[in-house]
Amino acid sequence: xxxxxxxxxxxxxxxxxxxxxxxxxxxxxxxxxxxxxxxxxxxxxxxxxxxxxxxxxxxxxxxxxxxxxxxxxxxxxxxxxxxxxxxxxxxxxxxxxxxxxxxxxxxxxxxxxxxxxxxxxxxxxxxxxxxxxxxxxxxxxxxxxxxxxxxxxxxxxxxxxxxxxxxxxxxxxxxxxxxxxxxxxxxxxxxxxxxxxxxxxxxxxxxxxxxxxxxxxxxxxxxxxxxxxxxxxxxxxxxxxxxxxxxxxxxxxxxxxxxxxxxxxxxxxxxxxxxxxxxxxxxxxxxxxxxxxxxxxxxxxxxxxxxxxxxxxxxxxxxxxxxxxxxxxxxxxxxxxxxxxxxxxxxxxxxxxxxxxxxxxxxxxxxxxxxxxxxxxxxxxxxxxxxxxxxxxxxxxxxxxxxxxxxxxxxxxxxxxxxxxxxxxxxxxxxxxxxxxxxxxxxxxxxxxxxxxxxxxxxxxxxxxxxxxxxxxxxxxxxxxxxxxxxxxxxxxxxxxxxxxxx
Length: 503
Ligand SMILES: [Zn+2]
Hints:
Blueprint: E1 2-13, H1 16-42, H2 51-62, H3 84-117, E2 137-138, E3 144-145, E4 151-157, E5 162-171, E6 178-180, E7 184-188, E8 191-202, H4 208-214, E9 219-225, E10 232-238, E11 243-249, H5 252-273, H6 284-311, E12 316-320, H7 332-358, E13 362-366, E14 383-385, E15 400-402, E16 409-411, H8 412-433
Parallel strand pairs: 9-12, 12-13
Antiparallel strand pairs: 1-5, 1-8, 2-7, 3-4, 4-5, 6-8, 7-8, 9-10, 10-11, 14-15, 15-16
């Protein structure tokens, strides 16, 4: 079984004075967490223990009982009658912070020693413990009860006493087939929310290799990520080569234009002030704007990709490796823009992989070499051109392709996405036949990194490849040819592409 954890976020409806209680509850939670952080700093060997043993040790050090009348650092100095589960949640929060602080400090010491051993000056400041505590209170069992789809009763510190409060819940409902973890009381602005982690279990999807080798009807969704208007082009095809659907996810020109404008502003501001202070971020607001929009687009595009794959019942998602970023020339805004567009491709992949896994869809990547130059039907080299141009040569980023060998005509990005999907199949075909793939027609003279169209059969996170497609990239956007003339069936692709099935 595989499992995934998601957080269900729900808005709480409560009386006005309850907001002050939730705030007081959070303040107390942080006071206790900060107190335990201090206790841990004074007894650092606690961090060598498991969380469970560390909890016992910390309670021994702080919690007054008949058997333990004089603990070393009594919690009662902070507050009396703190519920055990409230205390334990705070201890776990403190342990988390202490472990993180300790590992950061250890790494800093290592870097310092390394620098000193080499006789280099080491100016990096050591990590500091948290100056202020802004954790949200986690409500362990015992701190809440009577949870229904529309309400929950919470035990909170009002500032004067412990009180049970019934609040209404709105928003996304909790999924039925899941295990609900301890909820947290979270403040967003003035509104209090309840965040509940839910754990979903599902049968682990079988390995990609098995899916490809054992079922000719396995559907996979191949994705070509671009720097032009069509940010992503996805095609669904079966292992035996039937193309089922294509979708174009646009918006590249808009995001590129937006970014260029902000980067232009940053460049102008820098020119005006003349100096950039070292170690200090300039134009914080503008950078924030760019990051925010990039993040939003990456989430939107990745969600659309996974939604499309799901609609067509694809069980595998295929991307190509990103390769290295080739610096482009030109103005600051242009260079910055292409760099960010490249990073965004990485984010889209990361998010899509994560979202797909939640749907039981596995993700893989293939060698990007020549995916744009190869004909999806006969694997000859294609001509790439724009409308109105003659269909010959290879114009980077142009929207159309023509294969002079088999006459295939169509959208260049769609052709590339089909090739990406086919590479995954070829990977397993190759390993089952045990003989190397013939080099691409028409490129025999070229030096290819492995001499094969497909490699990297082992790893998902393979090496970055020196020869990336779209190296020069095309931010100006390309006109989208509305009609797709590419044949909808690949029944005429060479037989060696097919996976041999044992009956
Ligand atoms: Zn062809």
